[in-house]
Amino acid sequence: MATSTSVIPNSVIPTTVNPDLQKERDAASFNSEEFAAWWAGGEEVLKFNRGVRKYMEKDIDFSEMLQLQNKTHEEIIESSTRGAIDGAKKLRRLQEERNPGGDDYWPNMYESQVMWGLVPGGNPFGVMYVMLVKALQAQCTPEQYAEFGKRLERFEICGTYAQTELGHGTYLRGLETRADFDRETDEFVLNTPKISSYKWWPGGLGHSSNHCLVMAQLYIDNKCKGPHMFFIQVRDEETHEPLPGVHIGDIGKKMGFIGVNNGFLGLKNVRIPRTRMLMRHAQVKADGSYVSSPINVLTYFAMVRTRCVISKSNAVMLAAAATIATRYSAVRRQSPINPNEREPQIIDHVTQQMKLFPEIATSVAYRQASNYLWNLYDVTIKDIENGKYERLPELHSLSCALKVTCSTDSTTGVEKLRLACGGHGYLTSSNMSNIYVAATAACTYEGENTVLLLQIGRFLMKTWRAALTGAPLPPTVRYLAEVQKNPEFGSWTGSWENMVKAMQYAAANRTRLAFKSFSNRLSRGETEANAANHTGIEFTQAAELHGRAFVFSAFTEVVTGPKSKTRSANFNRVLENLLELYLVKETLNQMGHLLRFINLTDTDLTRLQDRLETVLTKLRPDAVAIVDGFDFSDLQLNSTLGSYDGNAYERIFDAALKNPMNQKSVPKSFHEVLKPFMKSNI
Ligand SMILES: Cc1cc2nc3c(=O)[nH]c(=O)nc-3n(C[C@H](O)[C@H](O)[C@H](O)COP(=O)(O)OP(=O)(O)OC[C@H]3O[C@@H](n4cnc5c(N)ncnc54)[C@H](O)[C@@H]3O)c2cc1C
Fold it and tell me: 447, 594, 621, 629: least buried by Cβ within 10 Å?
């Protein structure tokens, strides 16, 4: 039933594109399709992705997706489960039809940008595919993988990665779940002895999983061998009832990812065969003898991969928010700049440009830096297969650095972009709140950001010490040795190369100062652990700058390197503008650190401000075409403000009319609460 008589009879969304948005597209200096192909990784990949996405989006009801926030907790879990299963089914069908026996559609596309946003409540099987399957591939023996890894990969069973407990997440050695080896029965006996030992947080554990990979302390003859992984069945495969000794449930509503049904798990004397401990590296033999892993960090290697995934996906989230805010800023008009003139598109207010364009540039910078990280990941995986572990510390530290800076910057960036949409950005139908809570979650999971910065800080201390002895350094930290050799920065020219050098110089000198403070504390008799704790702030500052210096150099290399010759001149100009904006705004953001080590005059700073304003103006005509090049579908953006056609007001209105609160002209609360109160005279 309609609420009341409306001044417009029905909300009708025009089928045409908003003329302001169309003009933006017509006036762009470059072809957004070239951007889209570059962003996707080539024309062929773009074509492939679009084909898959079209197939994936068939039969999905857009207006239903917009109503996500009006659903109950249970309804969201149900619709997320349906969405995730629907996606899996479609990809499997595509695999069957187009490349039977391969894995390019299923499961590989399940974690790609094509799937992003299609399950707005969060995918309850995301952890299963992003983490669990990969952890099993890395940690199982071939026999184990054939026995249960393959079943999971084929989705015959479903599961999650259960590491965090109510009492411990960061400090893995503090985990309390224990797995005691019973020689008599050739089994492990698993227990979570206290409330604080309950597994807490694993995605999909609450209602979706019937198996999980549990990180538990291995005990043999009551002697602890540290955390190891155990594959456990937690629910019956037919009835889905919890198995004996298993206490399992949902941890309750969270800021976001409601459909992911993060869960808890208690275990009481749950027995599993010895062969359910993952034994590719560390092993327990039938006689109880223990073979340790050749390198301990391999236990946590699945987390390294997930951090690579986060660096890329948070860049995508920022790009999505930038698309919404930029399109909206092109269609909304407000506040004449000169009296008596027409109200401009809000994108013409320079301060608005300052909210939008730096975030566009930041998402592009992180996406490029994460491509470098993925290449390093692939090289390191091959090395590990050949028993070579030399680049592992570098990969670990770089994946942490990028995960931290990208999740931090995308979170603040999405919030800036939400504010850039004014009041309507606060509507859940803008989808900004959903993107924000997804972005900020990544600051905590897969290693809390501060804790990761401290780990990078320690890696930098070791590397600085190694450089002092003349030892060779891995490529991404070689700049530390260069700064040791040439301690003078030279002069500030403001060229891009010079700016990269300046950020590296600041990172190296922050590392030098942290190293000095750390060494002083050690020489005053502090233990290494206490000295590290007391130098923690300096460690995190050095680590953050190290991450930023890496993004500076990776993005500059992509824009100015040999591949630029394969791009059109117009497109190169756009990328150069994005690079210029990214380097200038980030240099200004980090000015406190830079000024400590580098002489910049007032004129240099004024020039940077001029460059910032100039490049905003240069990017203005291309902003809409750039975000079009990010190539999100309307369904993925799931936003009344950011759709391709720019019909924002009609979509806002339409979503409001469909709100359950507007399905009755008088709400129940009027009769039950408001009216009785007004009539009671109390
Ligand atoms: C959305 C979401 C999904 C998740 N999914 C999963 C999952 O699928 N599986 C799973 O196992 N877990 C999951 N987690 C849990 C997540 O991995 C942990 O919350 C995360 O590792 C942080 O650990 P913590 O909660 O123990 O934080 P804490 O370590 O308790 O952090 C609290 C504060 O203490 C500080 N702190 C802690 N240790 C130190 C230190 N050594 N030095 C300085 N400061 C320190 C931190 O910086 C922080 O400020 C998820 C969490 C979230 C939010």
Answer: 621
**What tokens appear for 582 in the block?**
């990214």
Handedness of CA 402, 404, 407, 410 (dihedral sign): negative
pTM score, whole prediction: 0.96
By mean pLDDT, which of 109-113, 419-423, 568-572 is the weakest? 109-113
What are the residues whose beta carbons fall under 8 Å from the beta carbon of 31, sequence distance 6 or more? 568, 570, 571, 625
Identify the band that residue 1 occupies on the pLDDT scale cut at 50, 70 and 90. Answer: very low
pLDDT digits (tens, 9 = 90+) for 233-254: 999 999 999 999 999 999 999 9
Tokens standing for residue 139 = 């940690």
- Say whether pLDDT at 7 is over 90: no
Q: CB neighbours (10 Å) of residue 255?
A: 12
ipTM of predicted assembly, 2 dp: 0.98
* pLDDT exceeds 50 at position 629: yes
Q: What would the two tokens of residue 482 be?
A: 């260069």
Please enumerate in sequence order all residues whose Cβ is within 8 A of that of 408, keeping only pairs 6 or more positions apart, or say none: 443, 449
pLDDT at 626: 98
pLDDT tier for residue 63 given thresholds of 50, 70 and 90: confident
- Consult the annotation and say whether 177 binds a ligand: no
Q: Ligand 1 center to residue 170 CA distance, Å?
A: 5
pLDDT tens digits for range 638-669: 999 999 999 999 999 999 998 888 999 999 99
Q: Please tell me the distance from the alpha carbon of residue 370 to that of residue 35, in angstroms, as a whole number.
A: 18
H/E stretch holding 229 reads strand 223-233
Return the CATH number of the domain spanning residue range 155-297: 2.40.110.10
Q: Domain segments of the chain: what residues?
A: 155-297, 302-627
Within a 10 A sphere around the Cβ of 572, how many other Cβ atoms?
17
Q: Which two tokens stand for residue 358?
A: 């730096």
Domains 155-297 and 302-627 are alike in CATH topology:
no
Contact criterion met (CB below 8 Å) for 538 and 517: yes
Sign of CA dihedral 633, 637, 639, 641: negative
Check if 626 has its Cβ closer than 6 Å to any atom of ligand 1.
Answer: no
Q: Which atom of ligand 1 is nearest to the CA of 203?
A: 8
User: Nearest-CA neighbor of 395 among 365, 372, 418, 415?
Assistant: 372
Tokens 């275990």: give the residue.
Answer: 267
Mean pLDDT of the chain: 94
Give the integer Cα–Cα distance in Å for 442 and 453.
14
**Contact criterion met (CB below 8 Å) for 320 and 636:** yes
- Residue 533 Cα distances to 447, 455, 456, 537, 546, angstroms: 18, 11, 13, 8, 19
- What residues pair up with 178 in beta bridges, in sequence order? 191, 217
Give the Cβ contact number of residue 537 at 10 Å.
13
Distance in Å, CA 208 to ligand 1 centroid: 22
Has 601 been labeled as part of a binding site?
A: no
Active site residues: 446
The average pLDDT across 180-196 equals: 98
Residue nearest to atom 40 of ligand 1 (CA): 451
Among 131, 451, 454, 538, which residue has the most ligand 1 atoms within 8 Å of its CB, making it the best to mutate? Answer: 451
Report how far ligand 1's centroid is from the alpha carbon of 108 (Å): 28
Query: Helix, strand or coil for residue 546?
Result: helix
Q: How far does the centroid of ligand 1 lie from the alpha carbon of residue 169, in Å?
A: 5
